[in-house]
Amino acid sequence: MNVPEPIKGAGRCPSCGSRKVRRVPIPDTRFYATELEACCNCDAAWEPFDPAKLLDADIPRSSFVEPCNNCAFRPDSPEQRDTQKWRELMEQLKQGDGFYCHKGVPIDPASENGFQYPVDRQGKPIAHKLRLCRGYLNMLSRQLEKGEQA
Questions:
Q1: In angstroms, rounded to a whole number, what is the distance separating the alpha carbons of residues 51 and 57?
Q2: How far, in whole angstroms, is CA 54 from its chain's centroid?
Q3: Which pLDDT tens digit goes with each residue over 28-53?
Q4: What residues form DSSP beta bridges with 125?
């Protein structure tokens, strides 16, 4: 499923571009954030983020300065609890796959990863429409410092 390129600017729906968005609190699941933004036009919902926390706010797909509070790479994240699945993901990443941030991406609980990342016709992530995950980048950096292969 193709998702339109998220539109620049805070307060806009990443699916349809509408400015009719509202912020709503949700229970803490340790997977999704405790606040979501929802579109009054198309019903999309996503985790909002503060553009001031981007490494370079002038670059729309800039990574964040620090990992998100619900980053998959934080210790004891829900993603890491399934150790077999986590090992499989790490093997995929060693093959050159990227790991992308979920902030600002429409939520899709029925998807494999819980988010509606933009993909091409073959189902591969469209990298120029995505932001690399800061936790993933930090892991790569630590591996490079140790002289390990990513």
A1: 6
A2: 13
A3: 776 777 889 999 999 999 999 888 89
A4: 119
